[in-house]
Specification:
Elements: E1 4-7, E2 12-15, H1 24-33, H2 36-53, H3 60-75
Antiparallel strand pairs: 1-2
Length: about 90
């Protein structure tokens, strides 16, 4: 039976994540307050950020940037797309 959470992003009860996807307090907060659909949208947004900003996940500055963007996306009312971003047709 899936775990149900009240998703802060979607504002409704949805299936919760299977495990904390990030270390520490932020990961636990995501586990407790974010549903699978919102997390999947974050992963797509994160991929776009990595590609558009040409980030290396090994770079500590890039990881810090992504963590800040993740908090904005999941808890701060959304995150912006990079300037000049044009989605593929």
């Amino acid at each position: 039976m899936p775990r149900i959470v009240h998703c802060r992003v979607d504002g409704k009860d949805v299936e919760g994540l299977d495990f904390a996807p990030w270390p520490g307090e932020l990961g636990q907060r995501i586990f407790n307050e974010v549903g699978k659909p919102a997390w999947q949208r974050w992963l797509a947004h994160q991929t776009m950020l990595i590609n558009e900003h040409r980030l290396s996940p090994r770079d500590p500055a890039a990881r810090a940037f992504l963590a800040a963007e993740m908090e904005k996306f999941l808890f701060g009312g959304g995150a912006e797309k990079p300037p000049g971003y044009v989605p593929e047709a």
